[in-house]
């Protein structure tokens, strides 16, 4: 007898709405709970049967997942951007909870990975570092914007330096704007100091993971990028092969085919038409794409990827496509050595044919 129960939950800061369905789609109950650990635990302990739970990714998703995962059979944290059915029709807490329960029962939800707890601390440190990097970039843009507003040319990086700041400030002819620019310089100094501190703490935490020593041997992947990879991926075993890893990193080529078949002499036959490409996949992890694109730019400057890149160029491949191939190669190598626990072997990089885009 099917005793599965499906719970859809719409989670907010103060309250959580839960809707319960059985395996046949019959609505069983609805409950509005305070978003507090004790009340939520008691709710799930009071349910019988095999419990499956779904809720959307959000600010409290990690806390919520850790709280209820030991109490139920399955937890699906879904990506609202990929679940268009949730966004159709009426919108409300109770409506959303019921939709989630129904979609969970039908197997129509796309889950977001929350299974690896060993990298939670590193993930927080990486988030902090990334935010400081973005804040620093914003401050620099505001600084240059202030100079440009008074038609002061400020190309390059000299405008950020400490030694010539007084000279730059004297170029500003408006006292109020000069005060603002001085404040932006102070912000930049503070952010630089905090970023360096955050980077040290992040790398220190990353070194505790066995994968760190393996991945840092891959050309183009320094301490910061390796920290970002470990924190973002969590576990390499999430991906069976490189072909599942590439879409996650935004490095999968999207193909397009239509009207594939024809009838000839009463027999079905596939047309001999070329497969059309439509660029790279649109739904991806932005951190991972930035890591491997940046790594490819660094790796092609030194052996063994310098020779590999040149071989691609000699085979008439466009430079941007060659760099993409290097990025795919680096991601495949990273996944392989992480899963197998093997050291990077530079001798194997150039063994594959130049048209290859894959494994170590």
Provide a quick synopsis of the model:
By secondary structure, the chain is an alpha/beta fold. Helices cover 48% and strands 15% of the residues. The protein has three domains: 4-106, ATPase, nucleotide binding domain (Nucleotidyltransferase, domain 5, 2-Layer Sandwich); 120-206; 211-252 and 283-351, no CATH class.
Number of helical regions:
13
Q: Distance between the terminal alpha carbons, to the nearest Å?
A: 49 Å
Q: Which shape, going by the Cα principal axes?
A: globular
Strand tally is 9
Order of helices and strands: EEEHEHEHHHHHHHHEEEEHHH
Description:
The two termini are 49 Å apart. The protein has 13 helices and nine strands. The chain is α/β, with parallel strands linked by helices and 360 residues long. A hairpin with a 4-residue loop joins strand 2 and strand 3 (27-34). Helix 5 (120-148) packs across helix 9 and helix 7 packs across helix 9. The model is unreliable at 353-360 (pLDDT under 50). The protein folds into three domains: 4-106, ATPase, nucleotide binding domain (Nucleotidyltransferase, domain 5), CATH 3.30.420; 120-206; 211-252 and 283-351, no CATH class. It has helices at 37-45, 61-68, 84-87, 93-106, 120-148, 165-170, 175-206, 211-215, 223-233, 242-248, 286-299, 305-314, 319-340; strands spanning 4-11, 15-22, 27-34, 50-56, 74-78, 253-256, 261-264, 267-270, 276-280.
